[in-house]
Amino acid sequence: MSKENRNGNRAGAWGVVLALWIAGAGAAYAQDEATIKRPTQLRAAPGDGAASVAELAANATVTRTPQRQGAWVQVRSESGAMGWVHMFDIGTPARDNTAAQALRNLGNKASSGSSISVATATVGIRGLGEGDVSRSVVVGSKASRSEGLNQADRWRAGTDSARAFAKTAALQARAVEALPIPVLPPSAPASGAEASAAVSPQAGTGGDFALGRLLQSVEGVTEAQEADLGRQMAALLLQGKPLDPTPELQRYVNLLGRWLSLQSSRPDLPWTFVVVDESDFNAYSTPGGHVFVTRGLVDRCTDEAELAGILAHEIAHVAHRHHLHAMSTALRMGTPAGLPALVRQVHTQGVGAEAEHAADREAIVLAARAGLDPYGLVSALVQVNTLGDSDLQFADAHPQSRLRLDHLEQAMARRFDPLVGTKAPVTVDARLEMEGIK
Q1: Is residue 203 a contact partner of residue 332, using CB atoms and an 8 Å limit?
Q2: Rounded alpha-carbon distances, angstroms, from residue 192 to 72, 206, 398
């Protein structure tokens, strides 16, 4: 099913706003400016062995095109020369992202408190923004809160289906070792209040003794308890948020995500992948195996590998229980207990820089193990980096994309370049046309 047909499922007053956002995003992508991080060569074709078109000095400005092959992206120099540079050789200039701010203002004005938004504040691989959570976590019956989740469960892909998808897609599992951990910047020492809270596991439980006790020791949380807690969180996050109505898309994301999850340390979780009908570029997850991506994210991904990298990042968070650790820390720090408050805390403040870097590293490995291009996540981060995320509304929830790219460059080096070669990536739309998804 083509993207045009999928977009045709959207109707009503939001159609005009969504069209404006897509047009703006497309124009921005075509004109993404980036800077060269170090002196390098503009190559006539992807690969270090290709002929040099021109020399690019450090801090030179180039314009990125949507073309990518393996670790290489096509750019245009200031002189107009077209060529290819390695992804790790480009960055972004420091600038006031006026276009992003204008789109964010448009989204805030148009949303008027609705769960649908065209804001670009959550561009990137990051959790929900506080405004989204406050609109989502509302009082309602358990039945109404579970309606969307029950529908999502019906799209869940089984192990056999995921393996059949991989076979049809010519995705073969590979043995790939974990990436080394680069040296991280030293963490700031804990404040006196934090140190005091850390030795009082029941601090901040606000009378919710059961929840506080559950998160007193993350290691003691059983898989069944984790799944139950994650399902409650997922139901809260889906409150008032429509699911994308395209069955083929929901099935595809579940098949791709399930295949990736089979390469993780916890393949037997009830992994469920959900496409939410929102225009934000956003992804988030909950304990126990629920992973959410927005329609805006899927449409913005230039190829399957980018989507896979983002899904793998969220799978890594779940596999390593990053949400539970963050919730436990929030309780010790005095965050009011109760699931809505903890959900809001985790999805606005994030799970910590160390956990984000760990999820990035593991996402690269999971994609490679699944037979996918491991540079997909890097490409997505480059896209965010060239758009500029330093002034985003919820930048504190994640390390800036520039830092994440530097971290991945240290961890990956060029070891995956021979693995991916310079093969052109598969687009999401091309994969949706594949037999077995419809």
Answers
A1: yes
A2: 48, 21, 24
Contact criterion met (CB below 8 Å) for 84 and 46: yes
- Burial tier of 252 (Cβ tally within 10 Å: 0-12, 13-18, 19+): buried
Q: What is the DSSP string of 17-39?
A: HHHHHHHHHHHHHHT-EEEBSS-
Q: What is the DSSP letter of 124?
A: S
**For the domain bounded by 34-91, which CATH number is listed?**
2.30.30.40
pLDDT in tens, 330-366: 888 877 668 888 888 887 778 888 999 999 999 999 9
Which residue ranges make up each domain of the chain?
Answer: 34-91, 121-174+195-432
Distance CA 388, CA 396 (A): 14
At residue 382, what is the residue type?
V
Q: Which amino acid is at 224?
A: A
**Which DSSP category does 424 fall into?**
P
Give 173-184 as a DSSP string. ----PPPP-PPP
**Between the CA of residue 401 and those of 73, 125, 239, 370, 394, what are the distances in Å?**
17, 9, 29, 24, 13
Q: What is the CA radius of gyration of the chain?
A: 21
How do residues 11-37 score in pLDDT, each as one tens digit? 332 222 222 233 333 334 445 788 899
Q: Which residues contact 280 (CB under 8 A, 6 or more apart)?
A: 117, 118, 119, 120, 122, 123, 132, 294, 296, 297
User: What is residue 220's three-state secondary structure?
Assistant: helix
